[in-house]
Write a structure and sequence with these properties.
The strands form seven sheets. A seven-stranded mixed beta sheet has the order 16-17-18-15-14-20-21, with helices on both faces. It folds into two domains: 288 residues, 3-Layer(aba) Sandwich (Aldehyde Dehydrogenase, Chain A, domain 1), CATH 3.40.605.10; 180 residues, Aldehyde Dehydrogenase, Chain A, domain 2 (3-Layer(aba) Sandwich), CATH 3.40.309.10. The chain is built from 14 helices and 24 strands. The model has no long low-confidence stretch (mean pLDDT 97). Helix 2 runs antiparallel to helix 4, helix 7 packs across helix 8 and helix 9 crosses helix 10. It is α/β, with parallel strands linked by helices. 36% of the residues lie in helices and 23% in strands. Belongs to the aldehyde dehydrogenase family. GO terms for molecular function: aldehyde dehydrogenase [NAD(P)+] activity. This is Aldehyde dehydrogenase (NAD+).
Length: 506
């Protein structure tokens, strides 16, 4: 039997004791590694830097077993052996259990990741439940078409589940990314072996209890927590994994794609990095643009792949915007994520804190002006002040590379053509935004931006029914919406000869 992590919460949003199984969840059972060399992984509280718990490490042998059990489930109790409406009922049941345990999941997410409890409850957990419910509605609506050829033939397509899916998710939205990966896969009839981040595994592990309670058949969902170079690499290269989905850095995404191609050429979807451009024209609703600019970068502590980390402001309002943006940023409270008034908690780890601060140092060394922030906040945990840079040039490191923290650069522009060129001058193409009251300009600029998502007069708006993914080095494929189901289905053409005769002259 696997060990458990027990924590007593006592904050304004939730008071109570929570127990989480912290082993591997394989074939419907909680266990520890089959490999005698497996160790434990320390899980830290980013608000204090102290160890919360230690969990058993998963290794390649555990992935092998999980994949084997997932194949058995796919061929017996799931896939085409469970009707779509039954799969949908289970997904909706999971959503209901998540909503029942909303405060528990939100508390765990805040404790483990450092995001505020209010954000976890109002966004992460609530939206994760919506994703499961949304795909519960899709499960019995995945179908092909009858295709007209001649009256002598019946031709149609079937959309069949791919099979066993290896899924690798990041630490910035632990539960939300968990839902993005698992829900469409289960709706399509696939089985899953998922690797949560070793930094933030607690909500994924708690979810195994809800899968068990909902009655998900053993082997359909398997959770193996481990490191990227062991569990992640094994999933990407595994010859019996039919599809791999990865969310994370572009550098690691390249490795995942390479391993997938070197093994069985499995299907691959990648949701990778970004360097979002946020374009504010002089005719924008000024106050709303300022607030959305702050949300665009400082939401989730800047640990968001689609963050609006490059703000371009038309020159006629640039000085006014910088002053208002600085003022708005100064009012964002940084601190204890369980305090209701806190907007920004800590970064997720010491490594991430050090990485972000190294970018801040680079910006200063390259001559950028710190408008506000740029320092550590407090003396414990991994807190960083919200940071705004001005006086930047397009070749600076802080302008070109993804920082993944509460650091933003602000630049002036004069013409529409100029700002489109600047926004597109990036290896990334995940998200952009346009603020203007001119609908023709909004449509024109949105069409010219090379990004998978363009928000107009808003930022960081995500919905289960709207696809999300990137152009260029921001990835392949789409998450969410009907489009995500394409990654988890294979299209089979069937041609039935009704009355035709073979024409071979024999």
């Amino acid at each position: 039997m696997a060990p458990t992590f027990t924590h007593e919460f006592n904050h304004a949003g939730y008071k109570g004791k929570v127990e989480v199984p912290v082993g591997l969840y394989i074939n419907g059972k909680w266990t520890t590694s089959a490999d005698k060399n497996a160790k434990t992984i320390d899980v830290f509280n980013p608000s204090t830097g102290e160890i919360l718990t230690s969990i058993p490490e998963g290794l390649g042998a555990d992935v092998d077993q999980a994949v084997k059990d997932a194949h058995t489930a796919f061929n017996t109790t799931w896939g085409l052996h469970t009707p779509g409406f039954k799969r949908g009922e289970l997904l909706i049941k999971i959503a209901e259990l998540m909503e029942r345990d909303l405060d528990i999941l939100s508390s765990l997410e805040s404790l483990d990741n450092g995001k505020t409890f209010s954000a976890a409850k109002g966004f992460d957990v609530a939206e994760s439940a919506r994703v499961f419910r949304y795909y519960g509605g899709w499960a019995d609506k995945i179908h092909g078409k009858v295709i007209e050829t001649t009256e002598a033939k019946l031709a149609y397509t079937r959309h069949e589940p791919v099979g066993v899916c290896g899924q690798i998710i990041p630490w910035n939205f632990p539960l939300y990314m968990f839902s993005w990966k698992i829900a469409p896969a289960l709706a399509a009839g696939c089985t899953v072996v998922i690797k949560p981040s070793e930094l933030t595994p607690l909500t994924a592990l708690y979810m195994t209890k809800l899968f068990d309670e909902a009655g998900v058949p053993a082997g359909v969902v398997n959770v193996v927590v481990g490191y990227g170079h062991t569990v992640g690499a094994t999933l990407a290269a595994h010859p019996d994994v039919d599809k791999v989905a990865f969310t994370g850095s572009t550098a690691v995404g390249r490795k995942v794609m390479e391993q997938a191609s070197l093994s069985n050429i499995k299907k691959v979807s990648l949701e990778l990095g970004g360097k979002g451009s946020n374009i504010i024209f002089e005719d924008a609703d000024f106050d709303e643009a300022v607030k959305y600019a702050a949300q665009g970068i400082f939401f989730n502590h800047g640990q968001t792949c689609c963050a609006g980390s490059r703000i371009y402001v038309q020159k006629s309002i640039y000085d006014k915007f910088v002053s208002a943006f600085k003022d708005a940023t100064s009012r964002l409270k940084v601190g204890d994520p369980f305090e209701p008034s806190t907007y920004q908690g800590p970064q997720v780890s010491q490594l991430q804190y050090d990485r972000i601060m190294s970018y801040v140092d680079h910006g200063k060394q390259e001559g950028a002006k710190v408008i506000t922030g740029g320092k550590r906040h407090g003396d414990a945990g991994y807190f960083i002040e919200p940071t705004i840079f001005g006086d930047v040039t397009s070749n600076m490191k802080i302008v070109r590379e993804e920082i993944f923290g509460p650091v933003v650069v602000v630049s002036p522009f004069e013409t529409e053509e100029e700002v489109i060129a600047s926004a597109n001058d990036s290896v990334y193409g995940l998200a952009s935004a346009v603020f203007t009251q001119n609908i023709s300009r909004a449509t024109r600029v949105s069409g010219a931006l090379k990004a998978g998502t363009v928000w107009v007069n808003c930022y960081n708006e995500l919905h289960p029914q709207i696809p999300f993914g990137g152009f260029k080095q921001s990835g392949l494929g789409r998450e969410l919406g009907e489009y995500a189901l394409e990654s988890y289905t294979e299209i089979k053409s069937v041609q039935i000869n009704v009355s035709g005769k073979c024409g071979i002259p024999v």
